[in-house]
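Justification of resources, computational component.

The compute hours requested in this renewal are based largely on the per-chain cost of generating structure records like the one below. Each record pairs the submitted sequence with a full structure-token output. That output is archived, and it is also reused by downstream analysis tasks.
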Amino acid sequence: EKAARNLEKKYNMPPMYLDTEDDLEQDSVTLRQFDYAAACGSGIINSDYPELIRSIEIPKERIGELFGLRSLDGIDIITISGDSMAPTIPQKALALIDTRVHEFTRDGIYIFVLHGAVYMKRLQRMPGFIRAKSDNSFYDDIDIYPEKEQENFQIAARFIGVFHRDAVDPSVLT
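The structure output for this chain reads:
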């Protein structure tokens, strides 16, 4: 949502212009992919104002079947850079993320910012710290001490799954 507000401001669009109405009369929802990446590796620096790359319309009745979700509220698509989360998340994959999640509440894969770089790693709560782990054993763990890193560590989103566009029947996408 913050990215949408930034884009609207940058390009002099009316407020909420990039939002889609999610009311009962609509029979589809829009997934948005921004020019924003999460690094499965050593972190990546993104633009403060990522551009919208594409929008994908998904029929509401297919959301559960395609994604295992009831709703796509707060769900966006980002590009993955690097192989540290392979084979779970292949390099250059498109990832579904829940942009409403900004807290580490349970172990899982998160998108987080550490010292200005964006990462996607498996976070695990340890006594007194959070361990960022890669699924690819070639990469070392990163230990994060939230109390010491308050200014430099933020959860940006939670990983939902890999978006397999090629596995979706093109007639489903409008």
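The helical segments are 2-10, 63-67. The longest strand covers residues 28-39.
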